[in-house]
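Q: Here's a chain of 79 amino acids. Please give me its 3D structure as tokens.
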Amino acid sequence: AAVDRHASRLHVSITVVNKSGHVLAEFNPMDSEGEQSVEGQNISNRPEINEALAGIMGFEQRNAGSKKLEWLFFAYPVR
């Protein structure tokens, strides 16, 4: 619920992963209907997630989603 609330308020996508890189919660207020959820998947192979799991802030710019828009991803380690 907190992820949904903050993502909606900030108009950003938020994904929470555990220390092994598995998605615990996600919410993207800009997703169109039918977007596939990554909840439960291991996304530790993504560069920004890999850096956050190593204890540093990571970022990566790439195309994402079905609309192929350019996205800027940030990952920040939270303890």
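Q: Can you summarize the key feature?
A: The radius of gyration is 12 Å.
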